[in-house]
Amino acid sequence: MQRYGRRNRPFYRIAAVEKRARRDGPVLENLGWYNPLATDASKQLELNEERVKHWIAAGAQPSDTVRDFLAKRSLVDVKAWEADRAYDRKMVEINKAKAAAAAAAGEKKDEKKA
Fold it and tell me: 17 near 3, Cβ under 8 Å?
């Protein structure tokens, strides 16, 4: 996704981009757009579904956000998407638990020094 628009008014173009290119770098092909501020849901997202299917078949890897859009339109395997989302949530919980344990261990060390 390439961010356009002005400050506090984002607008994104969904594009096929080389993996090593920067976020707003050269585009291979524009595939649609996303306007998060549109009030009408039908005007929030526009996709060229045929070209999206072509790029995914060619091996393109969508970003997490774009993959969510594609899953809602059944352009990618929804079961695999749900499994990845569940795994991501699980990893977030594990990292939070590790951070809390590290913070608690740090407090215990400070108490011993005092």
Answer: no
Average pLDDT per run of 10 along the chain, which is 114 residues long?
A: 90 91 86 92 90 92 88 84 84 92 76 58
How is residue 113 written in tokens? 């020094």
User: Model-level pTM?
Assistant: 0.67
Are residues 89 and 64 in contact, defined by beta-carbon separation less than 8 angstroms?
A: no
For residues 108 and 101, give the distance between their C-alpha atoms in angstroms, rounded to a whole number: 11
On the 0-12 / 13-18 / 19+ scale of CB atoms within 10 A, 44 is middle
Give every strand in the sheet of 2-6, ordered side by side.
2-6, 9-16, 29-34, 45-47
Terminal Cα distance for the chain, rounded: 52
Between the alpha carbon of residue 108 and those of residues 3, 81, 98, 103, 114, the distances in Å are 45, 41, 15, 9, 10
